[in-house]
Amino acid sequence: MSELVYFCGTMDCGKSTLALQIEHNRSARGLQGLIFTRSDRAGAGVLSSRLGLSTKAVEATDDLDFYGYVVGHLSGGGRADYVIADEAQFFTPEQVDQLARVVDDLELDVYAFGIATDFRTRLFPGSQRLVELADRIEVLQVEALCWCGARATHNARTVDGRMVVEGAQVVVGDVNQSRGEVGYEVLCRRHHIRRMTAASARAAALSPDVLPVEQH
């Protein structure tokens, strides 16, 4: 039976790497897949991993009909044994419904990869719909770590290392941002609630107000 499988986790937990591994394993066995992504860090039409691996993909803009695209591909003589959809948190709920239809009507496996919640700890619409419809949900076991060493469970948006909690839900950035640019950092729940990033923790540690010994 074909399945809609949702692989989810925080940033830095290896989602895109796993997507590329699944593609490699299946193509090595002579299977052919359709690969989609949205707003990848490497640019439009690319599925990339922070490990330096990448492959070409179809950019899933808001007006892309996944079901229509796959049907058109097959009707034109193309082959598709499975579908990989990365950055699925950016998909619209309607597009997730289309992916489910690919599974049910075309009997193709769909492997979707994404971040469950945004920088405000709210579910992305695409992720919410995937949770509602997926046959299986797999939380990735490669644990991203907070700066304190605890398991990272939340994504924080930062500017100059300071956590921000306002702004548009979707702003493309990375965990390795330049100064002054929007970036992201994974934090444990405790430090996300306290809005304490690695940069602010270092600043606090260097402050004379928090030194553990008295000044003489």
UniProtKB/TrEMBL annotation:
One of its GO terms (molecular function) is thymidine kinase activity. Its EC number is 2.7.1.21. It catalyses: thymidine + ATP = dTMP + ADP + H(+). InterPro entries: P-loop_NTPase, Thymidine_kinase. Pfam families: TK. Keywords: ATP-binding, DNA synthesis, Kinase, Nucleotide-binding, Transferase. It comes from the Bacteria. It is an enzyme of class 2 (transferase). Belongs to the thymidine kinase family. This is Thymidine kinase.
